[in-house]
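Q: What would this chain look like folded?
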Amino acid sequence: MLHWLSNWITEGLKNSPEILLFLSLSLGYLIGSIRFGKFQLGGVAGSLLVAVCFSLLGVTVDAGVKAVLFALFIYAVGFESGPQFFRSLGIKTLREIFLALFIAIVGLITVLIMAKLFHLDKGLAAGLAAGGLTQSAIMGTASDALTHLGLSTQELSKYQSNITIGYAVTYIFGSLGAIIVCVNILPKLIKRDIRDDAMQAQAEQLNGSLLLNSNQNFAISEISGRLFRLSHKTNQTVAQIERNINGISIERIKRGNKIIEVTPETKLKLRDIILVVGHRDSIIKANSLFGTEITSASGMDFIMNTQDVEMRNERYVGQTLSQILKSEEVKQFKHGVYLIAIHRDGESVPLRDNVKLQLGDVITIYGADSDLRRVIDRIGAPITKSQKTDWVFHGLGLVVGLIIGLIVIRIGDIPLTLGAGGGALLSGLLFGWYRSRHQTTGNIPSSALQLLKDFGLAGFVVVIGLSSGLEAINTIKQQGLSLFLIGIVVTLLPMILAIFFGKYILGYKNAAVFAGALAGARSANPAFGEVLNKAGNATPTNSFVITYALANVFLTLLGPLIIAFV
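A: My prediction, written as structure tokens:
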């Protein structure tokens, strides 16, 4: 009975491997959440370990699933970071170039030394590099280089088979070890915390302003509304009062038991109840003019909204805030509307008098719907907040990325390509940058973007574990643990040396930025995913995308070099 049940479950899983995919995710994140002192494995690494265990069942997942999941993850990462990435390019990226080059050189030297000490042939050495450095392209370039050595058919077949063996044995720890180094070892060696440094970097990007979650508000709001019963006689009109007290607007007037229409020419009378909206300090200044503040009055409820608007009116482009707000034209139509924030390329712009507006700036304004519509018509187009994803835009982005990944450039006999992952990353960067300049297209809710990153990466490593785990386990049984242990050295040594190189030579001080750069220099996507989770924001992404692109070139070139020198 038990045997029949076991066979039934195994056959069922083989026909429905998606069950193991989601079970690995569930159990992996559960295991990854367990803390051992200050060490925490994390959901991605936990999912990988669970998937390796499930690989003993012999269930395989189509390689196309892995490609789709990784494309979703890396495109989402690029899209989120596009604006900051292109703005950060410059002299500062030299240290990312040197870090990626350092990892490649030290990785090559480590593999050559291990091959010499343990008498590894060319095939095992190349597979060791491909798995230990998690750069699958090394297998292709090394295999191609073997074909140019004039080897016999038997020798060529042996070496090429050994590439696969070396890769299978070392790849699992290549992924897991990179996570441990980036998330746990790096912060300890440089004595910095990834999350703290990520928050600090984000605060600097926001120019000192605070980033609130959707359910957060300031205890003391900058814009507020107050009710007053006029206890001082005044013959001033609404327009005169608003002109004399900058930063307030009178939104509603109750005279006796009637709500009367508010116009610029309306004169206020003694005992009128008025709703005043404006900047907190301006309302405080107006207290002496209006008289008695009251807590409530029937019919005086008033709804205000916040709206993001994309700047499209070229008349105001290049002008400072001071020039715009003091112009007679703006004074006439801005009644009841308050400037809350300006964002440019995803970053906060300080609300200073000398700040000049640019096309594509996202201007956040606050006011009543009727007032907002009047201002929006003059300055640009409203940015609609929607829970729907613009899949016309993002579907095209993924297609463009995957097509870019098909392009192969040959340097001699060495084929260089970004691959599907690199292409999707580049496309994500470009489409993310375009979205920052054209906010009315390419919408994707932040929660949807986070799902693409989390599920894409974790699902990707689960497919790797299910597909390669059994082969790695069987090879270790046949070959012994020596190759596996050598792989640990190849994985850890270059990264640990790179931490000291980055800290003392390149001058990395921010742990989040450094961890992202290190993960990219090792083309370690699972490690980068865990760094992002640890950081809590996108701070590590800029350094990652630069070193990741470079690593795809530098590490790929190791294949022919290993074949030549082993």
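Residues 28 and 47 are 4 Å apart (CA to CA).
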